[in-house]
Specification:
Blueprint lengths: L5 E9 L2 E10 L4 E7 L4 H14 L3 E11 L6 E2 L1 H18 L6 H5 L4 E2 L9 H49 L1 H17 L2 H5 L7 H14 L3 H19 L5 H21 L3 H21 L4
Parallel strand pairs: 3-4
Antiparallel strand pairs: 1-2, 2-4, 5-6
Helix pairs in contact: 1-4, 4-8, 4-10, 5-7, 8-9, 9-10
């Protein structure tokens, strides 16, 4: 498991250029990359983005680029090209009967070379520094991810314990339902009219039928089976090494759905209490997985 937050710095040198790149990562639903610092040529920016997308799946990523050393190449005018452009433009102006070309128009004819690709020569150093920064970032995310995994594993163990408690209470439900129904009927038969008529008490067959009906309505065995499966899957993801944030988020939603169903079917105060406690733990899990890649 990897955390989404972290920091990495890489430094590299090439052909007199020293590049320092800082990569900061924080929580984000998707992968969002922003470049800051020294301007880079489009091909270099594409190379940086490609390497980040290859290393990270989610997070808001800020890349700070700092370059020292070799300066951007100075601009140079191609005199031969400038003369040829001026001659062609002057001939066109005579044919059209308009004023001849000025210097600005001549310079606009692609006769200036160099100086228009800032930091283009620094690409090797910058990309190497990005790769080094991503290695350091990955190490930090692994360390934080391990701590996060321990915390999530503890919460999942707590949810498993509460699920076992609910299962044990649910197993007692038919007998508890029968006793409560018997007690309620006895109280009803204690009134004066029942004593006057010499009532013999509730019919055992009818009582068993009512108990079975109530127990069926309150049955949560399917929900408990699905809940156990979701918890097992979540535990496996937490113990794994790949990106698991989205799948964990889905499982948390499913666990919450099963707990809601169990709570709505609950006929015992003890089960309702355990469901409330489980929801509290699940909310802590939900908060934690927002930082999982």
């Amino acid at each position: 498991m990897r955390s989404m937050t972290g920091f990495g710095r890489g430094v590299a040198e090439h052909a007199g250029t020293r590049a320092t790149v800082d990569v900061r990562a924080v929580n984000h639903r998707f992968l969002d990359i922003k470049l800051r610092g020294a301007p880079v040529a489009p091909p270099i920016e594409d190379a940086i983005t490609a390497r980040i997308r290859g290393a990270l799946e989610r997070g808001a990523i800020t890349v700070g680029v700092h370059v020292a050393g070799q300066a951007a190449p100075a601009a140079r005018i191609d005199l031969a090209a400038a003369r040829a452009s001026h001659a062609a433009l002057a001939e066109l102006a005579r044919e059209l009967g308009i004023a001849g070309p000025d210097l600005a128009l001549v310079l606009a004819q692609s006769v200036v070379t160099g100086g228009d690709d800032p930091r283009g020569e620094d690409g090797v150093a910058i990309v190497a520094a990005v790769e080094a920064a991503l290695v350091e970032l990955a190490q930090m995310r692994e360390v934080e991810g391990a701590a996060l995994a321990r915390e999530l594993a503890s919460r999942l163990d707590e949810l498993t314990r509460l699920r076992r408690t609910i299962e044990q209470l649910a197993a007692q439900l038919p007998e508890l339902t029968r006793r409560r129904l018997q007690d309620r009927l006895r109280r009803l038969l204690r009134d004066e009219s029942a004593e006057a008529n010499g009532s013999a008490g509730p019919d055992p067959a009818r009582l068993a039928q009512e108990v079975a009906l109530l127990a069926d309505r309150a049955d949560i065995s399917e929900e408990l089976v699905r809940l156990a499966s979701h918890l097992d899957q979540a535990r496996a993801l937490v113990a794994g090494s790949g990106a698991s944030g989205r799948r964990l988020d889905f499982l948390v939603q499913e666990i919450g759905r099963e707990l809601n169903t169990i709570g709505s079917k609950s006929a015992l105060t003890e089960i309702s209490t355990a469901v409330v406690e489980a929801k509290t733990v699940l909310e802590k899990v939900r908060e934690q997985i927002q930082n999982v890649e």
